[in-house]
Design goal:
The chain has 378 residues and is an alpha/beta fold. Helices cover 38% and strands 13% of the residues. Strand 4, helix 7 and strand 5 form a beta-alpha-beta unit. The chain binds pyridoxal-5'-phosphate.
């Protein structure tokens, strides 16, 4: 047990989940080595099948990373120059970056204050103002689902394609229904910090309809179903066989890691809620029937000072995200003025992510609570 003055609580420590799997992972890597099958090998096909079963969706198609997954989904939906795509302004850049990479324009939408996810009211407003919208990308941010039913209803009314960005939310459920099967397509990232993280980059697209499987599978290999015959213009976005082999091992433990995050979140809610602090502690919304807590994000007055104070106590924290996408330098030409999306802007000023990973040790959460208490109530 570390003494209080030597305790360190990093924002993320992957060793406690990876180290116990060393032998299994080395065996999986050895299997790929023995086969010398490095691109779209048997482990890719098995991983896709296992992921589809785990998520409860009919189809899962691996690709190089979560950003490409969004791009591939947009390409499969036929989004391109002249189109617009509605995205939340408060998310990781990739959600909007993928839209721009197709030649389409993102239409930034505000978020709800409680869940940080796309606000259906703001989406409705965007629909009125932007008849060129062809698709919407609700993001299931921080591990909790967006409020999908009103979003799906607006999308159905306008005939939009719905692509769930589930990069941070593998295993999440909305009103008892698993995410990743709610819209037309959904995307995943296996970036190492995600709840299921590879030893490098990897991603995946899921789809509910049979119609898109062949197209998505082809788009990630230069639009080719048959070698050297190109029916579509795709690009190279294959998931490495080595990553697939490693992720297959890790998938078997995902459930327990999610449970660890959920119990850490409950402990934070209990301790921080009882401490009389001026912070807002995140709670799952009623529709977030399975929140998987990829991040535990508080709203904190004097946020930057608190972050610095936590750092001196050896506690890692992070600002996800400091600048709303509509105010990013590369999107200023879209003329979405400061003040236009107030909840996204307020979130950027107030949010702070605390350590939540399943490798937290006994006493870590109490230590974080004590450090926050000392900052506000000293
Ligand atoms: C919400 C969201 N979308 C997309 C991505 C992109 O995933 P990747 O880093 O695998 O390209 C991420 C990853 O950080 C993300 O958090």
């Amino acid at each position: 047990m570390p003494s209080e003055n030597t305790r360190r609580v990093p924002l993320l420590d992957l060793r406690p989940q990876n180290e116990p799997l060393r032998a299994e992972i080395e065996a999986a890597v050895g299997r790929v080595f023995d086969s010398q099958y490095f691109i779209l090998g048997p482990d890719n096909r098995e991983f896709e099948k296992e992921m589809a079963a785990w998520l409860g969706v009919p189809h899962a198609i691996g690709c190089a990373n979560g950003s490409d997954a969004i791009l591939l989904a947009l390409m499969a939906a036929g989004v391109g120059p002249g189109d617009e795509v509605a995205v939340p302004s408060f998310t990781f850049f990739a959600t909007a970056g993928a839209v721009s990479r197709t030649g389409a324009k993102p239409v930034f939408v505000d978020i709800e204050s409680k869940t940080f996810n796309l606000d259906p009211g703001s989406l409705e407003e965007a629909a009125r103002q932007h008849p060129g919208i062809k698709a919407v990308i609700p993001v299931h941010l921080f591990g909790g689902s967006a409020d999908m039913d009103p979003i799906l209803a607006i999308a159905a009314k306008h005939g939009w394609c719905v692509i769930e960005d589930g990069a941070q939310s593998i295993g999440a459920a909305y009103n008892g229904r698993p995410c990743f099967g709610l819209g037309h397509m959904a995307t995943l990232s296996f970036f190492p910090s995600k709840n299921l993280g590879g030893f490098g980059d990897a991603g995946m697209i899921t789809t509910t309809g049979d119609g898109l499987v062949e197209l998505l599978s082809a788009l990630r290999v230069h639009g080719s179903r048959e070698k050297y015959k190109h029916e579509w213009i795709g690009f190279n976005s294959r998931l490495d066989t080595l990553q697939a082999a490693i992720l297959r091992v890790k998938l078997r433990h995902l459930q327990e890691w999610i449970a660890g995050r959920q119990s850490n979140a409950a402990r934070y809610q209990e301790l921080l809620g009882a401490a009389g602090l001026p912070i807002t502690v995140p709670q799952a919304a009623p529709w977030q029937t399975r929140h998987v807590w990829n991040q535990f994000v508080i709203r904190a007055p004097r946020r930057d000072e608190l972050k610095a104070h936590l750092a001196t106590a050896g506690i890692g924290s992070e600002i996800y995200y400091p600048i709303p996408l509509h105010r990013q330098p590369c999107y200023l030409d879209l003329n979405c003025a400061e003040g236009a999306l107030p909840e996204s802007e307020r979130a950027c000023r107030e949010v702070l992510a605390l350590p939540i990973h399943s490798g937290l040790r006994d006493g870590d959460i109490e230590y974080v609570r004590d450090a926050i208490t000392k900052f506000y109530l000293k």
